[in-house]
Design a protein that fits this description.
Shape: elongated
Strand order of the largest sheet: 1-2-10-13-12-11
Helix content: 10-25%
Strand content: 35-45%
CATH architecture of the largest domain: 2-Layer Sandwich
Mean pLDDT: 89
Number of domains: 2
CATH superfamily of the largest domain: Probable tRNA modification gtpase trme, domain 1
Number of strands: 13
Distance between the termini: 45 Å
Length: 187
């Protein structure tokens, strides 16, 4: 397992609207494992669920599997929640045409929560995030303020996770804080 990179957003986050309704914070200690697997495959790999529908998330306890493509998933879990997850997946793919990659140090995870979370995301993202269209258990690869992200809705409050390359994290965080301050002025 790669050594975790230093958190990129220590000076900027956590942040909240003064009147409430929006919280931004960086999630630390989240293991991220990329899985690429050639068909055929089932809905479970190494006892872990894999969503087979586009842009869906399968969860088991604290572990989440995000569908990123027809043969690609991102598995996330708190670092100590699933010991040996990486090795377990490597053994499960065995001699198949597959790749298991530790991505934990490559992306920062920004959590966006609160009643204004959708408004903030709408300020930089072209996805329709209305609850009838994008709900808990859904994910998407998209652009937010022209930066590639993976968006995962983890709760109905609403609560989201944005997975962003560490090299973009500070800039994206500053953009989000500016956009959120504009929401606060709007009321």
């Amino acid at each position: 397992m790669a050594e975790a990179a230093p958190p990129p957003l220590d000076r900027a986050l956590p942040w909240a609207l003064p009147e409430g309704g929006l919280d931004l914070f960086e999630e630390h200690g989240l293991q991220q494992i990329g899985l690429r697997l050639r068909p055929p495959f089932s809905a479970y790999m190494a006892g872990l669920p894999l969503p087979l529908e586009p842009n869906r998330v399968a969860a088991m306890g604290a572990m989440r599997s995000l569908w990123l493509g027809p043969d690609e998933w991102l598995l996330t879990a708190p670092e100590n929640a699933t010991p040996g997850l990486f090795g377990r997946l490597q053994r499960a793919v065995g001699g198949r045409r597959a790749a298991v990659t530790d991505l934990s140090s490559s992306r920062a995870v920004i959590a966006v929560a609160g009643e204004r979370a959708r408004d903030l995301l709408a300020a930089g993202c072209g996805l329709d995030l209305h609850p009838r269209v994008f709900a808990p258990g859904q994910c998407a690869q998209t652009l937010f303020a022209r930066v590639p992200i993976i968006l995962d809705q983890v709760g109905a409050q609403p609560q989201y996770r944005l997975f962003v390359r560490r090299s973009y994290a500070r800039w994206l965080c500053a953009y989000m804080i500016d956009a959120a301050a504009g929401l606060d002025r709007e009321g």
